[in-house]
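Quick one: structure tokens for this chain, please?
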Amino acid sequence: RASRVIAAATDVTEINIYDVIGYDWWTDGGITASWVADQIRGKGDLVININSPGGDFFEGVAIYNLLRGHAGTKTVNIVGLAASAASLIAAAGDEVRIAAAGYVMIHNVWGLVVGDKNDMSAAAKDFEKFDQGCRVIYTGQSGKTDEEVAKLMDEETWFLGQEAVDNGFANGLLPADAVEDSETEARAQ
């Protein structure tokens, strides 16, 4: 499995989300809500490291809700990519830190629809409801309006490290990158 839980000597549990979100039939891998629930049950504070291209929307929402409901402090480290459903999971952090060369990507929910025009119309309504769910999460995280987030999702927006911070999708850079920024600012002054 591409993901492991590392229990440190402290009361902090580290969870690595380094795979697609949802069960991956091709590789027998993936990060599921069931797996996350097993990892956090009875645990205290969490450090959640993310490098994921995303995946199943509903698994992402379930993982987000599991983490938000967890009593311990949640620190999310985006060490590479938190895209699509993984960006929803990242939003569950009490503190979200991102690498200077890390990315957050948000977009409208994707899916496949088969059927006639009535099925397509019904699916469009369903997908708008799914997008609303994403916007609830992203507006709560970023402080942006629903309209602002909808526009960013429509455009499939990629945020590089500091851009993610500047737009409210992270609270700060990872400690190593934040130290470099402070040193650069001190030299400039």
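The chain has a mean pLDDT of 92.
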